[in-house]
Amino acid sequence: MEGMEDNEEHDMVVNETFSSEEEGYKYYNAYAKSKGFGVRKEETKKPGTYIAFRRLYVCSKEGYRARKHFEKTKRKRTPRPLSHCGCGARMEIEMSMESGEWFVKDFVVEHNHPLAIGDQTTFIRSHRGLNDAQKADAIEYGIGGLRTHETMEVMEKQHGGPEKVGFVPRDLTTVFGFGIVSDEKTKSYVWLLEAFLESAQQNHPRSVITDGDHAMAKAISKVFPNADHRLCSWHIEQNMIRHLRKTKLSDFRKFVYYYRNVDEFESRWADFLEEYEITEKDAWINRMYELRKKWSRAYTKDRYFLGMQSNQHSESLNSRIHKNLDRRMSLADLLEHTDHCLWRIRKNEAELDARASQTVPFTELDAELLLRSSANIYTPVMFKKVKQQIDQLPKWGVAKVTKQDTVVVYAVALKERRDVIYDVKLTMGGPMVQGVNCRCLKMETEEIPCTHIFFVLKFLGLISVPRCCILRRWTMLAKPAFESERKANMHDWSERMDRYHNLRNRSNLFLFNAASSPEKSQKVLDFLESLTPDVGEDNNTNEAASFGPLPAYFSGADQTFTGKVLDPKKIIPKGGPSKNNKRWKPLHETWKPNK
Prior knowledge:
Blueprint: H1 2-14, E1 17-18, H2 21-35, E2 39-45, E3 54-59, H3 67-70, E4 90-95, E5 102-108, H4 132-143, H5 148-159, H6 186-199, E6 207-210, H7 214-223, E7 228-231, H8 233-243, H9 246-257, H10 262-275, H11 283-290, H12 297-300, H13 312-323, H14 331-358, H15 369-375, H16 380-390, E8 396-404, E9 407-414, E10 421-429, E11 432-438, H17 442-446, H18 451-459, E12 491-492, H19 495-514, H20 518-531, E13 550-551, H21 587-590
Parallel strand pairs: 6-7
Antiparallel strand pairs: 1-5, 2-3, 3-4, 4-5, 8-9, 9-10, 10-11, 12-13
């Protein structure tokens, strides 16, 4: 079936003719967007004059990066990911000297790489950019006082999404869901977490990071009894700045980040209490000691938190949501505002998906073979973490090898300090590595191989990462198994407004081009006047004029609800947005020491 479709596409394209070279490019670029690849203009051939008679358009992945870019010795920044893989897809057009029309001379359908899917095509270079009418609108919005990100949001809303406008977003936070509670009590949090479990089909999280709220902690212990709970290091920092000063602050920080051994932690803590004369009056410090298993590196380093210490990503989302909150907001306004913030996150996710699926991280020509193998396995974010481990290989060496049946133990020692030794155990199944673990427990806590494991793999002469060292969740194969659904809307427009939006967006560029001369402008005006003889009147329409959006569940056929919906009971929360709607500042930004 796929071969038949390719033949049909080939016949359809080769029979096309174009009035100009630019029209041929627009046609092939539109075709490329529908398929999921980008287009690049290549050579132009001229018959001894300055008039082009042949043009070649190729897939944006045609060719390879020049060798000179790999041979650079001094780099100021990390090279861009590799996007070329020698794809042979192309369309070549040629101008007929007799008729002046352009026809398709050569067309190749097949690609040698995966094509972008869904909303990922928006971020391919040839599909980005604004047309002239959109540029004019953007300038007007800027003159009107809108900031760049506000202009982006307005134009994306107008045109029906980022795929219709050539802006590129940044940053990413993953959101599984959100809920609204009437208060911040344990009972409300229990309901919220149980609702989350229901939506997640009762899949309990293995670990949780919170800001230390007591009510939330009780709810977590009740709903997620087996989840490992730790406190956010960022929130601990804010409390440290509030309760501690100078050397006392720096010494306490060591308990959070530096001490790796439990015995060392307890010994240093006793010294800390004695040096700073800590008593029962120092309630915060005593409370932190009771919770030490939830924040100290000595107690959390071997537990499953995937290398995370804070929930700063969620805090950045909270800040974005709080920025425009107002106490006078209705519940519907709150939901719409929150959905708008999540819409921006979905847009960022689409860009990262496109970047991951269409590029490969850059590696040097003489890079470790394990590193080059990892570049084709892991997502760009995880590849950076794996690369950090592989880059440390020259610092280590094998001190001893012990064999026990199918298990081989490698003692990996630091070259500069032979007393620093980690045992790496490999379970062999014939010549194949069936299992591996290291005493540092990075594989168990962060789910990526540590430096010690990579060194043993190199020592054995392996050129690719064994399957037992790879978790699917960090690889390029994780998301293709599930189709991403990023389109969500808190409301729908009426049919009339949908038609208006479509007409406005499609006519915008035509009107801009018509404005190039007085004659064209008058011709368009005369045409419009002929279509609407009774300007300002709604003739022969039974559809009510609705200028705003309607709730997503609204239907004109539904009966109107005549009952009165009451506002929820007012609850005094633990905190709220400031009256002037300014950004909430952490304590270390507002606290001023006594002079």
